[in-house]
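Problem: given the chain below (115 residues), write out its structure.
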Amino acid sequence: MPILVRVVAVLILAAVFGSTGYDASAEDLIAQPPPAPGAPASLDQVISNLRWWLVGLLVGLATLFLTIGGIRYLAADGDPGQVEQAKRAMRNALIGYALAVLAPLLVTILRSLVG
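Solution.
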């Protein structure tokens, strides 16, 4: 079980600190007028917002599945069927964390396809 905790911690740290999504310099911010409230500045901003929304959603769902799996594992009381359901929920959580880590890459690929 400690190895699972380490893997989840590394995946969370990679998702949080892997990419900031901020690539504007100070000159870019000064030279351009601010966009209208609520309106995205460009297609890049829309894609960046999509990336962070997707990562947040995936990490939230993965954390929910990990919590449910942990509670099921604790409440299983040795029942093999319940233990298997708990392991399945934890496995799904790890898949969710992996997708959250890969989401910025997928959005970058989408950005290159759109132009």
